[in-house]
């Protein structure tokens, strides 16, 4: 390859590639990650979100890309600007922080100026336990016990999970918890489905004693015969409270 051909090839790559810096939403300790968005390989915005999820090592799948100053949503690849700075956001709300001042690997000297002061840990273990017991009695359905399978894995027996009120606050928190427990080979859990493939969009849709399937990014729900799928899965409310209280006391 002569010099003219190399120059032409580099020019073509520059046309199809966009270089950006991406930050994780609300994380002052995450260095800005420099990414090259190659339009030859990343042709859809969903593929781009999957790439950002993987490269930023997000525990929960990235659902949107925002501008750092005002949190404006960037909805398609054509709006990604070369040299731009963006924030990767999951299901949680966008958090306004000085993202552009967070150091990258090339500039770590600013990190100690941005790190927020440590908050004192309140010693309210006993009071929290008492409050939890009161809620458990007054709201017997605030906790759930479910069984979760790995998508397409017909040898995985399923993981029984206790979901307390904190985990049921929003889907982002729930999916992160399931990611830590299920440990998909594809990384973060992006969605939760019923055995017939229906997507769980709100935590209020979850029912105790029901089985679900965890699906990772770049994957579609696989409707198959999961291990012990036909066996009943019954859990008493008393057992839910007992396990919840044990977790609270740890």
UniProtKB/TrEMBL annotation:
It holds the Pfam family DCX. Residues 18-100, 144-227 form the Doublecortin domain. PROSITE patterns: DC. GO terms for biological process: intracellular signal transduction. GO terms for cellular component: microtubule; microtubule organizing center. PANTHER family: DOUBLECORTIN DOMAIN CONTAINING 2, PROTEIN RPI-1. This is Doublecortin domain-containing protein 2. It comes from Hydra vulgaris. The lineage of its organism: Eukaryota, Metazoa, Cnidaria, Hydrozoa, Hydroidolina. The gene is DCDC2.
């Amino acid at each position: 390859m002569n010099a003219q051909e190399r120059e032409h090839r580099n020019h073509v790559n520059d046309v199809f590639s966009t270089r950006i810096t991406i930050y994780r939403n609300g994380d002052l300790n995450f260095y800005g990650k420099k990414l090259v968005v190659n339009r030859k390989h990343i042709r859809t915005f969903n593929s781009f979100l999957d790439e950002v999820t993987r490269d930023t090592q997000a525990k929960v799948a990235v659902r949107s890309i925002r501008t750092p100053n005002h949190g404006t949503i960037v909805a398609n690849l054509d709006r990604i600007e070369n040299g731009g700075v963006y924030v990767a956001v999951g299901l949680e709300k966008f958090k306004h922080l000085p993202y552009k001042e967070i150091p990258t690997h090339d500039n770590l000297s600013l990190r100690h100026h941005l790190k927020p002061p440590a908050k004192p840990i309140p010693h309210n273990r006993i009071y929290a336990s008492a409050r939890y017991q009161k809620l458990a009695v007054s709201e017997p359905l605030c906790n759930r016990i479910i069984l979760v399978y790995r998508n397409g894995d017909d040898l995985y027996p399923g993981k029984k999970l206790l979901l307390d009120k904190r985990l049921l606050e929003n889907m982002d928190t729930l999916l992160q918890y399931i990611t830590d427990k299920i440990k998909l080979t594809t990384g973060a859990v992006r969605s939760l489905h019923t055995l017939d493939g229906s997507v769980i969009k709100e935590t209020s849709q979850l029912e105790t004693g029901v089985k679900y399937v965890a699906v990772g990014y770049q994957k579609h729900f696989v409707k198959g015969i999961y291990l012990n799928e036909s066996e009943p899965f019954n859990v008493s409310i008393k057992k839910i409270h007992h396990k919840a209280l044990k977790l609270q006391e740890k």
